[in-house]
Design brief:
Helix 1 runs parallel beside helix 8, helix 6 (141-156) packs across helix 12 (397-403) and helix 9 packs parallel to helix 10 (291-310). This protein is α/β, with parallel strands linked by helices and 417 residues long. The protein contains twelve helices and 14 strands. The protein has one domain (2-403).
């Protein structure tokens, strides 16, 4: 076993971090019916233009800086969707307005990292490791949460809590940085990848287990495949979203649908991860129409469908969206936007204190911009992450200090009740 990982292939590749015996998979599958808090992390990879996503239409400098790509003020068919008289949603994000009106959607603006990098790779790494400026961090923040949670639960439970990869699932082709680490996690394209009915694939899996020198794996193949069959039984067949929810047919929309399917299967899911891509709009970004409009339409319809599909489960769920950094305030010569700094996050859930834009607004005048060009960061993204860990997932502040090393005094925005 290379690096103590097992690679399972059935249509797509699922990667399971192996710090557990495979029998824990069976225990988790057998523990159906236990409702837990669910946290869903959605990463907008590529640095979404937060100023055209959550539009500061009450800021005159926004319009001065963007003569061709600014979103018009509310009132017309292509105008921003008014939220509070100063901020509005992009017009293609109408599916978020009911969430806002019900108080289930909040926004944290001018949020991000205080690190100065404008590298996609570094900024994503810093956000997913939650250690800005530190490249040597080995594990992701969500994996560290799972590690600490399992340690503390194991001390108090009799019998001790057993780890399971079904607690944390990424609907991605590879394991996201946020979930990398020694705690069990799984990355898989869709729930059909749990299907081991194909005998050729099944045989190859069993050969891997039979040949394993790792004693935690050897001899447990039968139990593992029994668990996988159990999970397959819970997720097989055509999935029909509830409450009239309609997901986009895009990869992002289908990934969110798979998260809903897993959540409803009651297999112990606590952490889910999905990603939306293609947000790096240096050229011809567009405004009410065009590239960003199309991406925001897919993004918002997908997230709104997930919330609608989960229905009453949203009372125990928080969906948090993020992106590595924002875009420059001024449009460039190609009618796009270059890499920036501060950005906007969405927080959605039944326990969210919604209908509010959180964070101190720094302004967009030249002398108010970060380095004279970008939206300044007034809320550290770790403040939002920490509030999710403590107020939604139920950890105490000592746990949060271990999840976010070097950041021991977070200031919660107050977005979660």
């Amino acid at each position: 076993m290379t690096s103590r990982r097992v690679f399972l292939k059935s249509g797509a590749m699922a990667m399971v971090t192996v710090g557990f015996a495979p029998s824990f998979l069976a225990r988790t599958a057998a523990a159906a019916g236990t409702r837990k808090k669910l946290f869903i992390s959605v990463f907008q990879r590529g640095a979404v233009d937060g100023l055209n996503m959550v539009v500061p239409f009450g800021e005159a400098d926004y319009y001065r800086a963007r003569p061709s790509i600014a979103i018009a003020r509310p009132g017309g068919s292509d105008g921003a969707i008014d939220l509070n008289g100063f901020f509005g949603l992009h017009p293609r994000m109408a599916s978020f307005k009911p969430l806002w009106d019900r108080g289930e959607l909040a926004i944290v603006h001018a949020c991000g990292s205080h690190d100065t990098t404008r590298s996609h790779f570094d900024a994503q790494d810093y956000m997913e490791s939650a250690t800005p400026g530190v490249k040597s961090t080995k594990d992701g923040w969500l994996n560290r949460y799972l590690q600490v949670r399992h340690e503390r639960a194991g001390e108090s439970e009799d019998p001790p809590l057993h780890d399971s990869p079904l607690q944390a699932v990424a609907l991605t082709k590879t394991m996201p940085r946020a979930l990398q680490g020694v705690a069990p996690a799984l990355a898989v394209g869709n729930t059909d990848d749990f299907n081991v009915s194909d005998m050729g694939a099944k045989a190859s899996f069993e050969e891997i287990y039979a040949a394993a020198k790792d004693k935690t794996l050897h001899g447990t193949a039968g139990e593992t495949f029994d668990a996988m069959r159990t999970l397959n039984q819970k997720t097989k067949g055509t999935y029909r979203p509830a409450n009239g929810a309609v997901y986009p047919r895009s990869p992002f929309g289908q990934a969110l649908q798979e998260i809903a399917r897993l959540a409803k299967a009651d297999v112990g899911l606590e952490i889910a991860f999905a990603e939306s891509t293609q947000w790096d709009h240096h050229v011809n970004e567009g405004a009410a129409t065009g590239q960003i409009a199309n991406r925001l339409d897919d993004f918002s319809r997908g997230v709104a469908a997930l919330a609608q599909d989960l229905g009453e489960r949203m009372a125990d769920t928080v969906i948090l969206t993020m992106s590595e950094f924002g875009r420059a305030v001024a449009e460039n010569g190609s009618r796009g936007t270059d890499h920036g700094h501060g950005n906007a996050m969405f927080v959605i859930g039944g326990g969210v204190k919604g209908r509010e834009v959180y964070g101190k607004w720094p302004g967009l005048a030249l002398d108010q911009r970060y380095e004279g060009r970008d939206l300044a960061v007034t809320t550290d993204f770790r403040d939002v992450f920490s509030e999710v860990v403590v107020k939604h997932l139920g950890a105490d502040r000592s746990v949060a200090a271990r999840v976010f090393p070097g950041y021991t005094t977070p200031r919660f925005p107050g977005v979660i009740a």
